[in-house]
């Protein structure tokens, strides 16, 4: 069982177990880590060859897949590690388990670390200085908890003294506007709504204009859940993003469904690219993973989603209350993947 608090803790953790595998030098078979046992037979080689690495890399791939990393991504990751180690010269009798551990950790941290920095609070301040609201659009398939997690993000912003307005742009699903209205009432924040059967792109535009008038610093735009292969609804979403040019497009996916969420994210990005009226279409900027408290150590979907999209996991939902929204702890995720 993983320590869920560790996986979602803030940036102050220390990886006390990072050196664990490298310390396994005593011949106690029961206590040997899997890295140590796989590499014992080639410890002390002057340099590593592909044939030496293949059995261990197969075990590594299998290990990652048990943690819900997509097979194709586990394969590519192992190829990357093999390329970094093949031909590497080591001193005689040097155990190489620690070398393999370091190479894998480096690759995983590199994947999970954002290619570009997204600091919402900093960017909200920058938008405020330009006298315009910061706009976040929440997208995803049906039933993943977009509205609930939008409310959690609203609460998080309120805790940081940021004024927020909700925009009810799910004009398709019955009850969606009422659900968002309930959250707005509980959080005591304004909501912009126009009811049902309206063009969500236009509703969003009017909401942003209203936020500019009333001084709201952030607009959180709720959208209808849609399957990634529903072209009419995907076209409507593409229009909303193109017309309003939000500061952040946040994909909400369930950690529980594992690699189905990876497929959803990949196809969302593809559809947004294909259907956009812009030559430089906006794609998914960041990821919010829900139900993260239900997956034990099967954290691989987070790795897979970041790998295929290049977008960071910005938040994880880990419960039902407004406070149950955390930042992802990259080092703890890596440690869990390598257990």
Short description:
The protein is of the alpha/beta class and 339 residues long.
Structure description:
It is a single chain. The protein has two domains: 4-112, SRP54, nucleotide-binding domain (Four Helix Bundle (Hemerythrin (Met), subunit A), Up-down Bundle), CATH 1.20.120.140; 120-284, P-loop containing nucleotide triphosphate hydrolases (Rossmann fold, 3-Layer(aba) Sandwich). It is elongated, with a radius of gyration of 23 Å. Residues 10-31 have low confidence and may be disordered. The protein has an eight-stranded mixed β-sheet with strand order 3-2-4-1-5-6-7-8, with helices on both faces. The protein is built from 13 helices and eight strands. The chain has helices at residues 4-7, 34-39, 50-66, 71-85, 97-112, 120-129, 146-159, 176-187, 200-214, 231-244, 259-275, 300-309, 330-337; strands spanning 134-139, 164-169, 191-193, 218-223, 248-254, 286-290, 313-317, 325-326. Helices cover 47% and strands 12% of the residues. α7 (146-159) packs parallel to α8 (176-187), α9 (200-214) packs parallel to α10 and α11 (259-275) packs parallel to α12 (300-309). The termini are close together.
